[in-house]
Amino acid sequence: MEHFKFSKSSEDNLKGVHPDLCIIMRKALALSPVDFGISEGLRNKKRQLELVAKGRSLTNNSRHITGHAVDIFALPNNAISWEFKYYQAIANIVFELSKTLSIEIEWGGKWDDLNDGTHFELSRKDYP
Ligand SMILES: [Zn+2]
């Protein structure tokens, strides 16, 4: 069976993202029960300040600015869904890979403030 592949725009959005995070997201897609894409990787400071101003991000010091974070969108049945269960399923695969590959990942779906199931980042401890 042909498995999921990142679209051209998802590939473009991985440009400038830390290679270890790219490895995780590519392997996650290969194993994921649900298709997904990359909506954003590297982000410039200006856009980050705009997101903070809109209340969509809580920090000026986002991991996106340094290429240590990605946001995804789930594509069950070829249509975007924001239902948390899909992001949970993808996160489960990411955490398995994180253990196997010893690449420590944090998931926004576990955050208490501004819970964000779309967001994955390399741990600040291992990737300062
Ligand atoms: Zn994010």
From TrEMBL:
SUPFAM superfamilies: Hedgehog/DD-peptidase. GO terms for molecular function: peptidase activity. Residues 59-122 form the Peptidase M15C domain. InterPro entries: Peptidase_M15C, Zn_M74/Hedgehog-like. This is M15 family metallopeptidase. It comes from Rahnella contaminans. The lineage of its organism: Bacteria, Pseudomonadati, Pseudomonadota, Gammaproteobacteria, Enterobacterales.
